């Protein structure tokens, strides 16, 4: 049903998405969230621990599947995709950056960066070349052959960002990327993300720190799996975030 | 993901856990090494024996009795004396037969020269001088008097003074009798080191075992006869006539137990029987190999399952960056196949090494059982696939969310 008005300008659409975990008792981790992210936008998701930030990010990143609702990434409805197709989408259209860096300890920085390309079957020489270029781009041109254990936290996160960019994704998902870093290093990582955003990558960032969220153009405040409020930090760029259908705030993504 | 990439990645993870990988493949290594060692030794052994026998194939046959033990396995020789003097005389008349030399064992207790004594060890056989007619004696000649004997090289070497033709031996028998004989000749030890030290004495007067024949007479009777045909071409027809007589008209046919069988064995038959034995052994080894490989697979599977659990976060990361279930499955499967093949290759190397030491020590020819080496490597791949399937399937099914939440 959701015909997109400006389909090319929307990177992510979520409509009334729900995800419930069943452990001792059901937990509605994401409890009816609707939003849309415009191409090239930089959005932060804030909220207290357990409010469903990571779950939302994982749903959009196709690591998890929603119980209800609809998610589109780059115009493709992810629910309709097979497991392998979703894996492919994760590898190509989406890049992940995690709080704990999550590099493979046995591999060198360059090999870690090249990993998504390995699963994407690109030629070895191209991979090596691109890994080198990306590491240079995140400022690690001189750490190409180092292993994660030989790198500082900030450097590791740079490798992770380079890895996320390997297959040239349109969407970068970062879950508390500065959570394990000191303020100064965190700021450097954020500068890098801002830089990437300026070059056109859509970014969705999860954080619980106000100072970090302020790097973004918009902030989505979550509480108990729902959107509590939206905040526009007033960058000049024309981006739009919509909540559920009761309070549409922008033109993108919601035509009902 | 293509196969070369998974090989590279799997090789990385195997190398980063060297000790564990080595322990994982230990079962396969030992299993394969055992099989290859057995095969090297077995082939070396049969080549040395068959080579010896074939090298100087003689037109000889052995007449003996054997039985298939009740609910037993294989065949057992029977040593009852059923071949009488009459039988021997009749067989000597068979067309193509040159001589029939009876063979009966004597219970020798002690063998002594002037200044040395050996208790046990040496066994004594009573036979006729024909037996040595064609046998190349190392020295001397066959006996032709009742106080003469032939010893084989092993006996000769047993004494420090090296017994040789012309020396005197005093033999003490189990029944208290003793005799002093002159060594007439020294015979070759047919199987080298494997030949027992043996003294040959004339049947007359030393062999005293008699039976009551079906004709009612009392006659000497023997458990074994050695028959020599005039030429190799005479062997087959002579064998037929001998079997025919022994089974139908001989004393032996009446004297033998119902379950016993009279066996007339040519050299060729002996080789064939020996090869049958080797084949049976091969089947047995095959079974041992099967068990070893099952144990080996369990070893690999076990470690792979542990490794899936341990590397769950790694699996989560790979899935997050775009690995499909198939990719993950392939990675783990390739890893276990590589482990299996490494195990098999190491097993082959170890087996050849141990086998080489063995045959060198035993002075047998070295053999390279290429078929078994190929089988071993193929089994390595098979073991890898079988033992990797379940762990790989589990790895493929890992939920990336769970995996990334895992500490
Ligand atoms: N895999 C899971 N299994 C069970 N419960 C989960 C799982 N993931 C998240 N939850 C629960 O869902 C809620 C939201 O979690 P999460 O999205 O991780 O929150 P946040 O990232 O905002 O801290 C929490 O109550 C958490 O306990
Ligand atoms: Mg979280």
TrEMBL record, chain A:
Q: Which domain of life is it from?
A: Archaea
Family annotation (Pfam families): ABC_tran
Instruction: List residues traversing the bilayer.
Output: none
* GO molecular function terms noted in the UniProt entry: ATP binding; ATP hydrolysis activity; transmembrane transporter activity
Gene Ontology cellular component terms for the protein in this record: membrane protein complex; plasma membrane
Q: Sorted alphabetically, which keywords does the UniProt record give?
A: ATP-binding, Nucleotide-binding, Transport
Domain ABC transporter residues, every copy = 12-249
Tell me the protein's name.
ABC transporter ATP-binding protein
Q: Which organism is it from?
A: Natrarchaeobius chitinivorans
UniProtKB/TrEMBL annotation, chain B:
Topology class, membrane: Multi-pass membrane protein
Q: Where in the cell is it found?
A: Cell membrane
Keywords in alphabetical order = Cell membrane, Membrane, Transmembrane, Transmembrane helix
Transmembrane stretches in the record are 21-41, 283-308, 328-352, 372-393
Please list the residue ranges annotated as the MacB-like periplasmic core domain.
Answer: 21-244
According to the UniProt record, one GO cellular component term is: plasma membrane
Residues in ABC3 transporter permease C-terminal domain copies: 287-400
Organism domain of life: Archaea
Q: What family is it from?
A: Belongs to the ABC-4 integral membrane protein family.
- Which Pfam families does UniProt cross-reference here? FtsX, MacB_PCD
Principal cellular location given in the protein's record: membrane
The name this protein carries in UniProt is ABC transporter permease
| One MF annotation (Gene Ontology) recorded for this entry | transmembrane transporter activity
Q: Which organism is the protein's source?
A: Natrarchaeobius chitinivorans
């Amino acid at each position: 049903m959701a015909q997109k008005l400006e389909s090319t300008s929307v990177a992510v659409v979520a409509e009334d998405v729900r995800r419930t975990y069943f452990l001792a008792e059901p937990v509605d981790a994401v409890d009816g969230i609707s939003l849309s992210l415009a191409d090239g936008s930089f959005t932060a998701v804030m909220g207290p621990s357990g409010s469903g930030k990571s779950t939302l990010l994982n749903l959009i990143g196709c690591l998890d599947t929603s119980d209800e609702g609809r998610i589109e990434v780059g115009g493709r409805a992810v629910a309709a995709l097979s497991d392998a197709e979703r894996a492919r989408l994760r590898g190509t259209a989406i890049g992940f950056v995690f709080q704990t860096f999550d590099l493979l300890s046995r591999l060198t920085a360059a090999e870690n960066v090249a990993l998504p390309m390995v699963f994407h079957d690109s030629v070895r020489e191209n991979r090596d070349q691109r890994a080198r270029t990306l590491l240079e781009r995140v400022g690690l041109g001189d750490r190409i052959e180092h292993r994660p254990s030989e790198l500082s936290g900030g450097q590791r996160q740079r490798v992770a960002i380079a890895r996320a960019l390997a297959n040239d994704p349109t969407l970068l998902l970062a879950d508390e990327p500065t959570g394990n870093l000191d303020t100064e290093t965190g700021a450097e990582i954020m500068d890098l993300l801002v830089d990437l955003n300026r070059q056109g990558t859509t970014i969705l960032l999860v954080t619980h720190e106000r100072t970090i969220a302020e790097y973004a153009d918009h902030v989505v405040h979550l509480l108990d799996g729902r959107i509590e409020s939206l905040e526009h930090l007033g960058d000049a760029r024309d981006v739009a975030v919509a909540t559920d259908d009761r309070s549409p705030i922008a033109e993108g993504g919601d035509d009902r | 993901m293509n196969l070369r990439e998974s090989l590279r990645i799997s090789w990385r993870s195997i190398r980063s856990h060297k000790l564990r990988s080595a322990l994982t493949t230990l079962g396969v290594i030992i299993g394969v090494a055992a099989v290859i060692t057995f095969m090297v030794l077995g082939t070396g052994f049969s080549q040395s024996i068959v080579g010896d026998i074939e090298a100087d194939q003689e037109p000889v046959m052995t007449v003996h009795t054997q039985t298939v033990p009740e609910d037993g396995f294989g065949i057992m020789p029977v040593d009852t004396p059923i071949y009488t003097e009459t039988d021997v005389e009749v067989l000597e008349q068979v067309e193509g037969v040159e001589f029939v030399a009876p063979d009966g064992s004597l219970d020798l207790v002690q063998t002594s020269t002037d200044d040395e004594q050996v208790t046990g060890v040496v066994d004594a056989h009573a036979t006729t001088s024909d037996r040595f007619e064609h046998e190349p004696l190392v020295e001397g000649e066959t006996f032709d008097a009742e106080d003469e004997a032939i010893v084989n090289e092993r006996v000769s070497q047993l004494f420090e003074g090296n017994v040789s033709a012309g020396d005197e031996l005093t033999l003490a028998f189990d029944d208290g009798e003793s005799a002093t004989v002159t060594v007439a000749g020294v015979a070759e030890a047919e199987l080298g080191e494997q030949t027992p030290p043996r003294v040959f004495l004339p049947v007359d007067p030393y062999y005293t075992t008699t039976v009551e024949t079906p004709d009612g007479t009392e006659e000497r009777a023997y458990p074994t006869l050695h028959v020599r045909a005039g030429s190799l071409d005479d062997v087959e027809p002579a064998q037929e006539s001998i079997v025919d007589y022994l089974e139908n008209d001989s004393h032996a046919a009446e004297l033998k137990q119902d379950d016993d069988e009279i066996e007339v064995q040519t050299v060729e038959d002996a080789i064939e029987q020996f090869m049958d034995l080797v084949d049976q052994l091969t089947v047995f080894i095959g079974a041992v190999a099967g068990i070893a490989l099952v144990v080996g697979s369990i070893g690999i599977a076990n470690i792979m399952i542990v490794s899936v659990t341990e590397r769950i976060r790694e699996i989560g990361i790979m899935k997050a960056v775009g690995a499909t279930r198939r990719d993950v499955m392939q990675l783990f499967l390739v890893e276990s196949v590589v482990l299996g093949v490494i195990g098999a290759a190491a097993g082959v190397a170890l087996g050849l090494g141990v086998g080489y030491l063995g045959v060198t020590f035993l002075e047998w020819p070295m053999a390279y059982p290429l078929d078994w080496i190929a089988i071993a490597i193929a089994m390595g791949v098979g073991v890898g696939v079988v033992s990797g399937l379940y762990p790989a399937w589990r790895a493929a099914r890992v939920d990336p969310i769970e995996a990334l939440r895992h500490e």
